[in-house]
Amino acid sequence: MSFFKAIRIDQRAETCDARYVDMAEEELMPGDVDLAVTHSAINYKDGLAVTGKGAVVRRFPMIPGVDLAGRVTRSTHPDFSAGDLVVATGCGVGEAHYGGFAERARLSGDWLVKLPGTLTPARAMTVGTAGLTAMFCLLALERHGLAPTDGPAVVSGASGGVGSFAVALLAAAGWRVAAITGHPAEADYLTSLGAAEILAREAFAQPGKPLQSQRFAAGVDTVGGVTLANILAQTQFDGAVAATGNVGGMDLPASVAPFILRGVALLGVESVRPRIALRRAAWARIATDLDAALIDAMCEVIPFDQALERARAIVTGKIRGRVVIEMP
Ligand code: NDP
To answer: Which Pfam families match (predicted)?
Structure first.
């Protein structure tokens, strides 16, 4: 019998208990592709999972880790064979199916994307769900027919995971990017990612008129609430905003005026469902558009034995940038 190291969350009475354990490969959940996990990453969701906050984990026991990259060791899926380097994000991994905080994984091949040649597993994990979501937003804006020549793009929650990648990806695609942040100290960081203008979060935090001066052709919003309402009110004729987050609230206190008087579109973006064609297109674009040095600058690599402690720390806001876990 072959054993591997994993972080496992067990439910005990009303609490959750996350710890390092040795597991047998026979304990892995069903799937048609086996992987030696080489890298994972710490997402906020993983922090919630290991601390038992929020209803992230949908079955117990669970191996957390919503993002993972690794090498295929066995496959009966037609698209994959032993030796392939692959990445998995979302699709219930780390929530309903054993995830990336382990040396081994067994997944459905329908959730996997072969890593484009130029993207290493460590860089793919730096990008992770956050970067993939930002790319989904850019692709949604492009599908809507928008281009950098239409005017500037705005990104809210810009210094966060999704926001940072949205700034970098929009700038790399040629957009003039205005970055909304509540952290003025992050201005240099955002400029280094490609932001042309830094806007204060407070300017978007108070309820405003339903129609305001037209400033942006496109937007990526990770905040929701009043911020999204104000961005919509400042979006120009035929512009669009990709909405993907709710750090500022689940509500949308807006009017229909931007939609019916300016033809503004609100494009919903979610990253968990397995739409494999979109995932492959997004990873391919990430590999060609994002500079490797820029990805590396956003990342801290830690060994697996520090992963649990760092996952617990993310929910207290003690982590900046992307923390990538390197398996032994
Ligand atoms: P982060 O915590 O990394 O970043 C969020 C950023 O938002 C912060 O860095 C901060 O940036 C800003 N912010 C925080 N609190 C507030 C507030 N109260 N009001 C306004 N701005 C605030 O999160 P992620 O980037 O990983 O995720 C962002 C959002 O996107 C979350 O809601 C997350 O759940 C969602 N998400 C959705 C996905 C989907 O599939 N739909 C996938 C991934 C994420 P600054 O200081 O620069 O303003």
So the answer is: ADH_N, ADH_zinc_N
